[in-house]
Amino acid sequence: MEKRYLEIDEWKIVEEGWDPANHMKSESIFSIGNGRMGQRANFEETYSGNTLQGSYVAGVYYPDKTKVGWWKNGYPEYFAKVLNSVNWIGINISVDGEQLDLNACAVSNFRRELDMQHGLLSRSFDVKFTNGKTLRIDSKRFLSLVRDEVGAIAYSFTPVNFEGAVVVTPYLDFDVENHDANWEEKFWDSVEERVAAQKGTVTAKTKKLDFQVSAAMRFEVAEGDQHITLYPNTDQREKFVSNTVELRVEQGKTYTIYKYAGITSSMNYKTKDLALAADTLASEAMRDGFDALYEEHANAWLEKWSTSDIIIDGDPAAQQAIRFNIFHLFQTFTGVDPRLNIGPKGFTGEKYGGSTYWDTEAYCLPFYLSTTDQSVARNLLIYRYNHLQKAIENAEKLGFTNGAALYPMVTMNGEECHNEWEITFEEIHRNGAIAYGIFNYVRHTLDRDYLHEYGFEVLLAISRFWAQRVNWSEARGKYVMLGVTGPNEYENNVNNNFYTNKMATWTMAYTLEVIDELKENHPDAYAKLVEKTHFDEETETKEWHEIIANIAIPFDDKQQVYLQQDGFLDKDLRPASSLAVEERPINQHWSWDRILRSCFIKQADVLQGLYFFEHQYDKATIRRNFDFYEPMTVHESSLSPCVHVILASRIGYGEKAYELYLRTARLDLDDYNREVHEGLHITSMAGTWMSVVQGFGGMKIIKEKLVFEPLLPEGWKALHFMLRWRGAVLKVNVTHSTLKVENVSDVEAEFHYGPHVHRVAANGEIKLELTK
Amino acid sequence: MEKRYLEIDEWKIVEEGWDPANHMKSESIFSIGNGRMGQRANFEETYSGNTLQGSYVAGVYYPDKTKVGWWKNGYPEYFAKVLNSVNWIGINISVDGEQLDLNACAVSNFRRELDMQHGLLSRSFDVKFTNGKTLRIDSKRFLSLVRDEVGAIAYSFTPVNFEGAVVVTPYLDFDVENHDANWEEKFWDSVEERVAAQKGTVTAKTKKLDFQVSAAMRFEVAEGDQHITLYPNTDQREKFVSNTVELRVEQGKTYTIYKYAGITSSMNYKTKDLALAADTLASEAMRDGFDALYEEHANAWLEKWSTSDIIIDGDPAAQQAIRFNIFHLFQTFTGVDPRLNIGPKGFTGEKYGGSTYWDTEAYCLPFYLSTTDQSVARNLLIYRYNHLQKAIENAEKLGFTNGAALYPMVTMNGEECHNEWEITFEEIHRNGAIAYGIFNYVRHTLDRDYLHEYGFEVLLAISRFWAQRVNWSEARGKYVMLGVTGPNEYENNVNNNFYTNKMATWTMAYTLEVIDELKENHPDAYAKLVEKTHFDEETETKEWHEIIANIAIPFDDKQQVYLQQDGFLDKDLRPASSLAVEERPINQHWSWDRILRSCFIKQADVLQGLYFFEHQYDKATIRRNFDFYEPMTVHESSLSPCVHVILASRIGYGEKAYELYLRTARLDLDDYNREVHEGLHITSMAGTWMSVVQGFGGMKIIKEKLVFEPLLPEGWKALHFMLRWRGAVLKVNVTHSTLKVENVSDVEAEFHYGPHVHRVAANGEIKLELTK
């Protein structure tokens, strides 16, 4: 962990004092977004120091030519990059010909603040130019949660010790770079620039795929609340427009540039309408004004918090962290558009490209299921449904037939982007997570219609994949699954990974259940699906039954634990605690072969399976496997601690649970992995939420029933979280001795605690004493 | 196999008729080289069609920045590229302002010929310019085997139907590209250009590592044997010099440009002397003249053939092929310089980079041992000795200690260049081949001094590596070796690969033998070595003994075969013959995961072990394993068929042996894999030699004794090959009924046939009837 430089505050992230060494981290941490767009906390004004410029438009990407050492048949031709897009925030400020540049000028009283409750980024500082002239700067900006193609900035400056001229240049710049471009290319070509007094638009298109994005700006300047009449000089060049205004300023007075941007993409408009639409948005925003825009935006945030907030009583650092995580999850994905998904870095960086990993189903879905309208989770599922044909084509490339689907490891549009054989072709458990997502959605919402409308086709295609992916081992008299990479990516190309085999047979079993349900309740719909999918029910389901009954499940009789894969016990088994500090993280110090042949585990693998299928395993089994695997786990994935927190809570390992929770909760705020400058770990933030709600809060679904089994960390006085459950909204309050469930909706709900079932009436409340 | 376009001739490769589609193939096939330099059969004159320009100087390479999709700790920073170097052959010809260009002019009577007996490339054709003027061209060139920094060209033209002006421009051009540059850079920077009438030099250096190469040219022009006085215009620019001469020519007369090049590199000269040395070489070459140079060169080739030729009576295509292979092996490596080695493409292309793979010890060493002075093989071994320190450092990067060495997979200077984890870090059996090379050299030559002078240190370092690379499996009660890639690269990251485990324990056992021998015969030298290597004999050898005694060797009791690796029998076992034709080669049609989990074998793996250690296995064992593995082998490495030819011959599978031989013998001449345009498969040519001599000729070494066990293909009347054996030179002649061994040296030799030992007196001869 880096030295903490941010202040602890329950609702805010605060950076006091200017240290350029922290700036790129803060650019990530203070990012703003509204699900449609995102913006790193880059400065409005010129900055000549180290920076990662990032302005992202959801769904717009670049298929950068794949870079590999040695090409292997089947590799994808491209890797979809999250695209740095138009710089819409830019406002250059100069005094006597010198640019305001925090890397060049003297800075004091610097403060940066992210108000998570209202979604506002603000910044203030004093800046002294070479000639001694000093400005006080105060800037605020947000990306509207209500008008999700609008951004607004109020950039104020006050001459502290002079009067005279200040030159301001608001601009739009599309001549931007992607840090991670494989061949050092720029990805955008100019389409059109237009500029006039106090406004301008730039439109650009991607060099491949012809995505178009337009940005429009409008701006005005006021002294206090007095509007100033401007006579700007306009400028334009390829991919760039600006206005330059020389303002005559008086000492001690405050001048504010209000800049409004409309940003539209060809995801949502015809290209011919794009620039006009952007300009209309900017123009309407300016008409309504910064304060009104902000008010509607802040209210929308308060509304989000009202059904999603978590309160941790007694641990301000944890309180700040959990809100930070919830805040960024909502900034990344609001669920209104089923074409969008949750990238590992959201809108906070370029790393990992793509938008969708198995993180979505395995880690993010529970968060959205519990905190938002069920349409949001449904849209996440429909995203995969819409990619089914591409997943089938992807499987065909790998030799599969008969409508078998392999969903991609990383994708933007359903096509595979990853290019390491051991992941791309072998980390196939991702397919299982997508099936599990359907199961999890249906048991949480009881939206059973989803199954015949969408779910069955996906489940069938995945089951078909599994059925073809195993083979019969004559020698062993079992079905085996050879050559896979499990969730623990510190093993590659292994045979009979417990987790993958489990996911495979579980998918088939669940699909069989769904078939029975459809035949019973929706026979007509089912008949149509059978025809559409050329489903030979008798033959195919017979094969599934055989595989389910005869799959190889590696198990050690002596220790009574599931084995991560064939041959796991041949390893030199030793605890991660035996590793020297200077060898950790091992992925930065060991060569890959050494990692692979070691016993050390990157993230939950067998335990991931036990977490998903907790309803199938008793506590003794969970404990034995936890005791065997967790000590060998190095948790070098940000997705690792959460599952362990939950299982540890379940088996009463409170101290262990809290220790692991600390590794996930403030991962980015405290920059544990020294990589936060590249962006935030968005999807693992959902894992942190799971740690709190499913771990300490003890929320779980067992046989379609809601169950609480809380275990509060010792230092916490109380935990309060919200839960949407089949139409009801529950406020759950856990202390060391009580469990209170308040139903703040008009829908009755029921939950289990211990052996008892409890009904909470609409707008009712139940308070229980916890058994020890 | 492509349609054969080359004529069958026992000593020549002949291409009749001009088809541009064949040109790049011919550029590879007709390459010339002398161990110090190589030159693809590019045209002297301008050629605007598809071409791979290639002019290579041994030992000079470029460390191109590694290109990988996802960086893994331990990857090398660079990949050493074989460097396309100065174009020294260039002679532009123009008539009335039009360039002679076979891609633009009308061509007839084209013939290209490579005289393998004398090492001469020649080419003739008629070329008609747009204006109807026709030239007859006749060009010859060679790289002198005697003066290995000299190339000579005699380029003749005869005006067929006109008199007037022909403009000729001999030049040197260092402004060249590497086709395989990762970032599309040029690798050479100019150092100096000088030009004067009838001569010029260019010197360039590599952008990294500062290799320098100078090329000098001298030229003159004659009409018949009449020297023509020239008044050339000189030209120079960066990395380029030329002379341009306008010749007044008469119809029907023949004009010849004699161009001599001297090419020197900083491998062999101080940089300040480089250009002068090159010019001196060119000047001396011109002084001696083309005919004299050629005579000494051709005689040197005849001398080489006198102890290496193979005669196949009754199969002209096989006859041509085996000479083609021997010819290119000698063009690639002559053994005079222990800093040089045998790249997979020799001097015929860029592909695979590097100069040295395990091919050298496993496939090439036997050829050089049998056909050249033993100093040549010794130099190949010393090459590795000289890289020992780097191999130790390489192992340290992977976490090994105490002087353990891991030799690189691909190298120029001892540093690892390969960048795929499953190869770089896991294909560690290469280490065993290097130990085996020492064993093979010593048993062939009885040069036991090599062991204390060089061999022991290498053996010790490799044994130390193996001892650290295994681990004790508590569950199995055996030492295991996890996470390796065997010779069959269609399996990655497997456990207990039979071949690798065998090589490991064999290395330790052989090192123990060598220790005993050194202690007995060279106790003082041994004591010094112990000190130098900090060898704790007692502890370390005790550990080796334990590992040897307790290594896991996967074996199937039921079928009594060694298993390629743990779990091999879990695969869907089926013969390669069950693959659809359109799926082959599978590496071009299947995704990598499918290849990995299939049973299909790229090249000999278990069988490679049985080949190396034939003296330890009985014929029934070889037959059982051959019967089990060969049917699953797809032979998609050029190194695969040879080992199978040898084993098939040994177990009496004559038809199978010949079928497989056909796949290796004319691999390049008939372009089986449709890739000969990229260069020739130099190292597998040595495998072809092994197929003939060790397979059909039945030559083997069992317990340090020379044994013949021939099995001639049915269609062959007789096979004649040469063999250097412990100072003797043997001519071996095999027919279907006789074995004749003629000793053409002054050293007595002995060999075994069946149960009997036979002594062949100096200059004597023994002829035996073969038992059926």
TrEMBL record, chains A, B:
Substrate binds at W358, D359, K602, Q603. Pfam families: Glyco_hydro_65C (PF03633), Glyco_hydro_65m (PF03632), Glyco_hydro_65N (PF03636). One of its GO terms (molecular function) is hydrolase activity, hydrolyzing O-glycosyl compounds. The keyword Hydrolase applies. This is Glycoside hydrolase family 65 protein. Belongs to the glycosyl hydrolase 65 family. It comes from the Bacteria. One of its GO terms (biological process) is carbohydrate metabolic process. PANTHER family: GLYCOSYL HYDROLASE-RELATED (PTHR11051), MALTOSE PHOSPHORYLASE (PTHR11051:SF14). Residues 323-690 form the Glycoside hydrolase family 65 central catalytic domain. Keywords: Hydrolase. InterPro entries: 6-hairpin_glycosidase_sf, 6hp_glycosidase-like_sf, Gal_mutarotase_sf_dom, GH65_N, Glyco_hydro_65_C, Glyco_hydro_65_M, Glyco_hydro_65_N, Malt_Pase/Glycosyl_Hdrlase. Residues 699-749 form the Glycoside hydrolase family 65 C-terminal domain. The keyword Zinc-finger does not apply. Residues 14-266 form the Glycoside hydrolase family 65 N-terminal domain. It comes from Phaeocystidibacter marisrubri.
